[in-house]
Amino acid sequence: MSCLASSRSSSLVALTDASNHTVNEEVEALLTWKSKLDSGSRYNLSSWNGSSPCSWRGIDCDPLGSIVSFNLSSSAIRGTLHALNFSHLPNLVTLRLPYNKLFGNIPLSIGHLSKLIRLELTGNNLSGNIPIELGSLRSLQYLDLASNNLTGPIPIEILGLSNLTVLSLAFNKLYGSIPKEIRMPPLQYINLSSNDLTGPIPVEILGLSNLTFLSLAYNKLFGNIPLSIGHLSKLIHLDLSHHNLSGNIPIELGSLRSLQYLDLSGNSIAGPIPSSIGNMSSLGELWLGGNQLVGSIPKEIGRLGSLQKLHLKSNHLNGSIPIELGSLRSLQYLDLSWNSIPGPIPSSIGNMSSLGDLWLVGNQLVGSIPTELGSLRSLQHLGLAENNISGPIPSFIGNMSSLGELWLGGNQLVGSIPKEIGRLGCLHGLGLPSNYLKGSIPIELESLRSLRYLDLFGNSIAGLIPSSIGNMSSLGDLWLGGSIPIELGSLRSLRYLDLSGNGIAGLIPSSIGNMSRLGDLWLGGNQLVGSIPIELGSLRSLGSLGLTENNISGPIPSSIGNMSSLWLLLLRVNQLVGSIPKEIGRLGSLDTLDFSSNYLKGSIPTTLGNLSNFAYLHLYGNQLSGSIPLEVGGMSSLIKMQLGSNNLTGPIPSSIGNLTHLSDLHIANNLLSGSR
Q1: Which residues form the signal peptide (predicted)?
Q2: N or C: which end of the chain has fewer CB within 10 A?
Q3: Is the pLDDT at 662 greater than 80, yes or no?
Q4: Is the pTM of this model over 0.85?
């Protein structure tokens, strides 16, 4: 054998021996870590056995059998990283453990992974500081530690990683300022959102010429948006929302021709919306809501042909809606609510053929609802409430076949409710309150089987509530006027029923007891007669019951004691007679009881002393007799007790001294005795 051949053979043997030694150490490191995990994790890693890791779950090797990739994404691994000997994984290039159940600190020894290019630990429960040792990973290109419980400042050491292109530290508890050392030219992606970072936006971050994604949202940054932001020519996504940023929107933003997403909402940004935004030709979403912007909506926004979402809600905009917005044929979402926008709704909005959401609530809009809106066949949500819109509700609304929510309340609409609304098979929310609507409720509304919320309160609607309303099997919230049909009891999904403040007459139908999901029942301020149906005791989910200011007579049914969820019981100003049922003492959640101004007799039941959560007791203006029971001292949360204008006798019980929260005690105009 030649000397050269012998040398090559010796080198190969040495390389093989070294490789075998490395693999043995890698196997030992991983099996040791596995042994420290919980039983479920060990089961998920059942393939981790033997001495050949290249076939193990989540493991990839190089040609010599050494581990280069470790990927256990979303594998329900529970434990810490402390038992993982990183120094025995010298060739590791990729370490991916996102969306597991890891906890504890990130070990300092992770800095031994000198060849590491990708590190993903997002979506765990890791805590402690980000180790400065990560700054030793000179090959690192991708670092994602988002969605953990990491604390402390962002270490400047990781900002010296010259190959880093992706940095995601979002959804942690990091604090301090964003370091000025963030100057790594290769960086393309930065996400520091949802932490507790403070201070201004460092101008240095705006010198990263390769940056395509920048999110600093939901921190506590303050100051102005730097003008140099216009230099980020490759930027596609910019989110600076929910801080305390102030000043104006820089006109330099108009230079970002590649920008597709811009969110500056939830700040204190003032001044006008710059017309230069109309130059951002790639923009797909623009979120500027929740600021202090003034002036008009720039007509130049109408040039943004790719715009799909425009959100300017909750500002101080006071110019009319520009007709140029009608050119936004790709727009799917438009929210201009809660500004001071005057004038009519422009008919050009009817050209927005892709529009699914139109929210103009809480402005100063006038005029009628334009007929052109009838062309918006993709519209799912229409909110025009709280304006000064007048005229009738147009019948063409019945052609908007995709409409799921229609909110027109708080305007000056007149006429009747169009029967064509009954054609809206997808409608689940209909709010028309506080207008000047007349006529009756159209029977066609019975076809709205998907309706969950119906509010017609505060109009001049006459006639009976149609019995067909009982066919709306999905209805969950109902505000109406009229009289109560027994068919209402068929609404088994109803959670909220408010018929108060109308001229409703007649009886309370016993069928209401069938509404097993009902949580709130308000029938006050009407002309109801008859007695309280004992069937109401079946409403175990009922939290509040208001029957005040009617002409209801008869006794209070003892079945009320079965309403185990009841916290508010209001029966004042009726013609109720008989005694207060002792079963009310079973209502452990009761906070407020008001039976005042009736004709109740008998004594105050001692069982009320069981109500330790009781805060307000109103029994004045009845014909109650006997003494104030000693047991009232058990109502330890009581704040207000009004027993005046009855026929109570005897001394004031000393147990009232136990009511340490009591601030209002009214017992005048009784026949009480005792020393002063």
Answers
A1: none
A2: C
A3: yes
A4: no
